[in-house]
Task: inverse folding
C-alpha cells in the first residue's frame, strides 16, 4: 500500500482498519521507536510483531502466523537539492511470540534521486516481500544499518536535523513520539516552551507578582476613586 501525504492529511475510517497502524509504522521507520501501547487503546498491548503478523483485534490469532517480512518506506523531497530520497526499514520475524533480535531489523537510506517506486519492496516473481539481498534500486545505492541508535543518527542527518544526540535531534525524536501518540500533554505550557518556543528569559509569573506587590505598596500609584452614592428620587 502506498499513499501520498500533503501538508495536512486526514485518515478517516471505522475501528480496526489500520489508521493507528499507519502512525505506528511511520514513527517506527523514522525514530526506531517501538512503544506502540500509547496509541489508540493503551490496554490493547500493541507491538511491532503484532502489526507485522497482522494480529486480529480481540483474538490471539494472526493472519500471518509464520515467518514474516515487512517493509516500511517514506519518501521525502529535498527542497534545497530538489531531489527525492527514501528512508525505509525492513523487519523479519520468525513468529509473533518470538523476540526480535538486532539483526531482524534493518534501516535503509537511499542516495539522492531515489523514489519509493524504484525500490523492490515486493518480489515481482512471487508477490512476496523481497529478500534482503534483492532489496536495492536498479541504479544507485542504499546504505543500511541494523543498529537503532545509528539509524536514528543517520535519519536525523538525512532530514537536516544534525546528530540524533544534539538538542534538535532529541527534540525531533521526542516531539515526533508525542505527535503520533494521541496522548494528552499534561502541561501544555511546559511543552510549548520546551519543544516549540525558546525558553523565555524572564519569569513572567514572578514579574507579575513583583508588579502587583509594587502597585499595592507604593504611595505614588493612583488609588481608585470612591464610587459616588447613587440617588433615587423618592
Result:
Amino acid at each position: 500500500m502506498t499513499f501520498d501525504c500533503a501538508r495536512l492529511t486526514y485518515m478517516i475510517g471505522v475501528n480496526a482498519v489500520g489508521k493507528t497502524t499507519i502512525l505506528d509504522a511511520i514513527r517506527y521507520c523514522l525514530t526506531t521507536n517501538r512503544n506502540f501501547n500509547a496509541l489508540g487503546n493503551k490496554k490493547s498491548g500493541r507491538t511491532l510483531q503484532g502489526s507485522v503478523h497482522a494480529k486480529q483485534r480481540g483474538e490471539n490469532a494472526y493472519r500471518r502466523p509464520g515467518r514474516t517480512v515487512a517493509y516500511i518506506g517514506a519518501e521525502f523531497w529535498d527542497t534545497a537539492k530538489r531531489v527525492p530520497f527514501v528512508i525505509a526499514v525492513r523487519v523479519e520475524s520468525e513468529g509473533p511470540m518470538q523476540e526480535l533480535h538486532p539483526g531482524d531489523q534493518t534501516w535503509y537510506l537511499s542516495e539522492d534521486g531515489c523514489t519509493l517506486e524504484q525500490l523492490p519492496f515486493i518480489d515481482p516473481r512471487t508477490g512476496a516481500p523481497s529478500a534482503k539481498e534483492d532489496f536495492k534500486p536498479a541504479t544507485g545505492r542504499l546504505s543500511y544499518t541494523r543498529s537503532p541508535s545509528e539509524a536514528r543518527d543517520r535519519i536525523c542527518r538525512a532530514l537536516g536535523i544534525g546528530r540524533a544526540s544534539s538538542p534538535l535531534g532529541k527534540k525531533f525524536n521526542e516531539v515526533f513520539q508525542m505527535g503520533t501518540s494521541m496522548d494528552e500533554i499534561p502541561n501544555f505550557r511546559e511543552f510549548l516552551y520546551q519543544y516549540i518556543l525558546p525558553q523565555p528569559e524572564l519569569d513572567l509569573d514572578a514579574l507579575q507578582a513583583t508588579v502587583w506587590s509594587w502597585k499595592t505598596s507604593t504611595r505614588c500609584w493612583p488609588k481608585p476613586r470612591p464610587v459616588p452614592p447613587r440617588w433615587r428620587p423618592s
Q: What stands out?
A: The mean pLDDT is 83. The beta strands are 68-78, 83-93, 105-110, 142-145. Residues 11 and 19 are 6 Å apart (CA to CA).
